[in-house]
Amino acid sequence: MKILVSACLLGLRCRYDGQSKPNAAVLALGERHQLIPCCPEQLGGLPTPRSPSEWRGDRIVNREGRDVTEAYRRGGGEAVRLARTLGCELAILKERSPACGSREIYDGSFSGVLIPGQGSAAIALRAAGIPVIGESELDKLG
């Protein structure tokens, strides 16, 4: 199966802070599946490193208060295009990210408080019919 994966989970330094979050369990899936790296934030035109961003209502703002919603929406659309072009049947996305979060996101206060919600790419992928899970939900693969 082809699986779209948040690039940071595969060890690529694309996070807001210029770091990665390699996940051994996700990397191990590469033995049985074709993993397609994707960073929706970069695909949306944001630089690396960049100021951290969080959802605030229906908008995404960075720590300085700049509205970056359109870059995140653009990145979500590009993630869908990549998944469709390459025939991905599933997406495994970085939890809690404003782009990739699949169940929880930060509340917009930049204080570490989590609330139920989804990132922009998770929303776009699900709307396109591509199932999305977070890295802690790999047991759903069976």
Any chance you could write out the topology, listing elements then pairs?
Blueprint: E1 2-6, H1 24-28, E2 34-38, H2 40-43, E3 53-56, E4 59-62, H3 69-86, E5 90-93, E6 104-106, E7 114-116, H4 120-127, E8 132-134
Parallel strand pairs: 1-2, 1-5, 5-8
Antiparallel strand pairs: 3-4, 6-7
Output the radius of gyration. 14 Å
The structure class reads alpha/beta
For the residues shown, what is the average pLDDT?
97
Q: Proportion of β residues? A: 15-25%
Question: What is the global morphology?
Answer: globular
**Which strand order does the major sheet show?**
2-1-5-8
Total beta-strand segments: 8
Low-confidence stretches: none
What profile does the largest beta sheet have?
4 strands, parallel
Helix content: 10-25%
User: Distance between termini?
Assistant: 13 Å
SS element count, helices = 4
Domain count: the total is 1
Order of helices and strands: EHEHEEHEEEHE
